[in-house]
Structure formats: structure tokens, C-alpha cells
Amino acid sequence: MTRTMERTRSDAAQIFRERRAPLGNVATAVFKLLRGAVAPWVACLPGGVAVPYLEGLRGSGLRPVVAKTETGGGFFADGVAWETGMPALVVAITGPGLTNLITPLACARHERNPIVVLSAEVPSTAMGRRAVQDGSDLGLCSTTRLTAGITALSVAADGPLKAMSAVRHALRIAKARRMPVHVSIALDALTTPATALPTPIDCIDRGMAVDSGAVLEAVARINRCKRPAILVGRGVRPAGPELVQLAEILHCPVLTTPTAKGEFPESHPLSAGVYSFAHGRLAHQAIRASDLLIAIGCGLGEFASRNWDPCFQDKVLIHVDDDPAEFGRNFTPAVAVLGDAATTIRSLAAALGTRLRIRRHWPRQLVSVQPVAPNPTAYKRGAVDPAAAFRAIQRLLPGDARVLADIGSVSALAVHHLRINAPQRFYLPLGYACVGHAVAAAVGVRAASGKQTVVCAGDAAFLSNTELHTAVEMRLGGLVYVIANNAGNWMVESGLRQQFGRHHGIESGMFRAPANIAAIARGMGARATVARTLPELEAAFRVGLDAREPTVIDLRTQCVPPPMLDRVQFLTKARVRP
């Protein structure tokens, strides 16, 4: 009790000191408004009209992280938002700063990660007068109009009062809808003295009420079926324990989309693994054999439904989501339950606990995990079989480590070969599928989580992003980059070979010679080594997990076709118009 009273008096004294202190300008007041409501890291690229923001960050309690590009800074913020669930801040200049952020913002929107972008605009007196980097609505390229289609809110403020209101409103939307937002504030508004201490923002997530009638209808449908199955997407987070309870009540197989890998423990006897992209045989069998599917937090798009497999139309579909726009987007549900995943699953479990009829219609082999068969490809001297490499990573991976897979053949290999047994351990944003995302997002994840973090990326993805240097600057040890170096865009080349044959004659982005990834990493200040055998990979991986600086493993791999047949089939069919 005494400690609590002392802490209360300390907090009151801090508030009193802040109210007596000079308020500073609008930029300073903005960060006072945001403090405590956002993650404590601010990705930024200093320069130009954004300087008032950087001045306002001093003494704000928020930590600026200097990115190498706005794109990398946006991916860094996406990683922070994914790890913490809190809105992540990005500060950027107008004009090219905002256009460089379009790809990360689109990625964040697909993955529903809240990012708040604060951009600085040219002075209001210079708008529309060909000022350098004019991104105002009066300029040739309006940044608010450019970002309006990929954010939940994009607004410009040319006055101090409007600026404060816009930031407050944007943060509420980012938190409530879990989407990126953008506020552009004119330079002269940022430097105007603030007239009042901003009121702290209440960003409590109160969840959503669940339609009890829809829950009871879903229970009735479940009781009439013989072989239910559960398919969960990224929107199931953070309902891991509730999901396990529901699966055990129903005693049915649970499948995840690639982006939800690990949200249901893959070592659990009821886990059927990942469905669709790089899926295993068990997942395919479970979907085909089921007569009722409970889809939770997924939109049943290309990678969640195996290219919109017509078999989904023959099942009783119970669709659970907190966004009503997802209902009927791809398949018409028999029952649509609007609500957040955790609350809805608890309601279903409670109702089924008193109404479930005993069911034993699933064959035994469909409710047990089957081991992944080893890749039979013969070894080539000086290169590692990529499947064997991922199995080695699996053996050495700490249970609480975060794994980020970049876009390319490594993403299919990671989905197929890694076994993730806890929620919030695996990140693969396939919605917008941005090459180079994991290289930068992992820096944000490592900083925000404090846990060992592993990046699986290809050489082309690594070369598209330079935020490794940001990790070096932040001295982030326990961050390991495993770069599959097979001389270029092997996933593209492999797909072309499967569609058109080995001698297709189409430019695929393969390099004339492998890039020296290790030398590039050393040039950025990271620990780096070349691995040409499994023992070399394992030794470097162990060292990297405990190192005090980021580690890059230049893993020379064979060019083995990755498990991506579904994607190739989709691209092949898409060439013919219906």
C-alpha cells in the first residue's frame, strides 16, 4: 500500500511539473499527446521540413530510429506494430518521403497493423507555388490523395488547432480499425507555439460484443455435421488458448493460413498444419474430408483457400470475423458471426460445452500430425539443400524466438518445414507480398520484443533493403539473418520452368554470379559468415543467436524447386480469360 501511494504521488508530481513546464510548439505538443498511446520507437529519416518533429522528439520519451529509407522505416514500424499490437510511429518529409512509404502502408493495411505516419508539409504560404517537395493539396502531387486509398485516414492540417485534432482523431482510428493513418502538418503550423497541454488519449481496446443469436445458430449447425474442421487466419490473434479449447471440445483438425502459422500449436495432436500455400498432404485431406468449416479471422482469399477451391462451396461455412466486409467476399457463409476472435471463440466453446453431441467421425490419421518427408534431392558440392537447411534451423530455433520469412522461395520453405508451436512467433505478410519486408521489419520486431529473432530471406530480398545497418546502429544482438544465396530470383525462375519448361527464354532475374552477401553485411558492420555445408550453417546459427551484434549467414543453397505448385497453377490458369 505504501509503495502504491508513493507511486501515485510520484505520478502526480510528474504531471504537475509538465503542466508548469513550457508547452513548446505544436510538434512538441503532438508527441506529448502520443506518448503512452503508441509504441516508444519512431522511425524517421531526418531532413527538410521534418526538422520540427525531430526537435519535438527531444525529451518526449519516444526513441527516434533513423532508417536508411522511408520504405525501410515503414517496414520497421510494421514490425513494431505486429509485435506490440500498438500503433507505431513514422515521421517523414512530404513529397518523396510519402511516396516511398506507400508500399509499407499497403502492407500494413493488408496485415491490419496500425501505423501512424506524421509528415511535414511545406509552409502554407508556399503551397501551390512550386516549392521543393510540395505535397500539399495545392501542389502537383497531393500526398493525402495518394495515400487516401491505402490508409484508414489521410488528412492535411495547415493550422495548429486542426493539427492537434487531426492527430488525436487519426490515432483513435488506427487503434480501433488496426489500419495505417496519415496526418500531414504544414511547417509553419508545426512551429507555432502550443496554447494548451493536450488531453491524454484514451485508446483502451474494449473489444466487440458478439451476436449471441448467431452463436447459437452456429452451434446448431455444428451439431448437425459429422466432420467439422477449423481454419484460422491472421485475425484470430490473440485467441490462442481459446482456440485450443474450442478444438479440443470439437475434437477436430485445425488448419491455419500461412500468415497465421503458429497461432495454433503445430505440435498439437489436432493440428493439420498450414493449408494452401506450401501446404502438406494432411491439410489438404482435412479440408476435403470436412463437411463443415469454421473459418476464423480469414478472408478466404487466394492463399487461404487454395486458389478459391470450389470444394469450399460444398461445405457448411461458419465465418467468424470482426470486419463485416469479409462475409461473402469469396464464399457465402451459412452463418456469419460478427465479433472479435477471442470473445467469439469463448462464446462458441461455452455454448458447445452444454450442447455438443458426442462425435467420432474423423479417421484417426486426420487428427494426428504427420512428419514432413525429407527432400530427396542429391547434394551438390559447395551448396546446401534448402529443405535440409530449414530442418536444421528448426532443431536449433529457441521456443520463444520470432521468425520472419521474406517473399521468395524461402517463404514456401519456411511454411512447409518449420514447426511453430506458439502464437505470435511467425510473420509472413502474404497479403501484399513485399520483397525485402522481413529484412527491415525484423529490426522492429527484435527491438520491440527483446527476443531472439531469425530472418529467412533470399539474396534478392536482402539486396533490396539496407535496414541491416539500422540494426547495427541499434546494436541489436540475437538477430540472425539466414540468406539463401542461389544467385537471384529463384522462385520466379522456378515458377517459369514449371509453366514453360527449363529453356523458357524469359528474363527471371537470375544473377550472372552470386552476390557476396557476407561482404556486403560486413561493410554495414554486421557479423557475417559464408556457409556451404550444414555443419557450417549450424555453427554460425548458434553463434548468431548469442552474438551482441546482428549476424548474417550467407548460405549457399542449391536451386531446388520450392513447394509452390498451387501458386504456379493459379498463374497458369490466370493467363486464360474465362
Question: How would you sum up this structure, described in words?
Answer:
- The protein is globular, with a radius of gyration of 25 Å.
- Helices cover 39% and strands 15% of the residues.
- Helix 4 crosses helix 16 (437-449) and helix 10 (212-224) packs across helix 13 (341-355).
- With 578 residues, it is α/β, with parallel strands linked by helices.
- The chain has 22 helices and 18 strands.
- Helix 8 (160-177) links the parallel strand 5 (153-157) and strand 6.
- It has 3 domains: 19-190, 3-Layer(aba) Sandwich (Rossmann fold); 212-367, Rossmann fold (3-Layer(aba) Sandwich), CATH 3.40.50.1220; 386-574, 3-Layer(aba) Sandwich (Rossmann fold).
- The chain has a 6-stranded parallel sheet, with helices on both faces.
- The chain starts with a helix and ends with a helix.
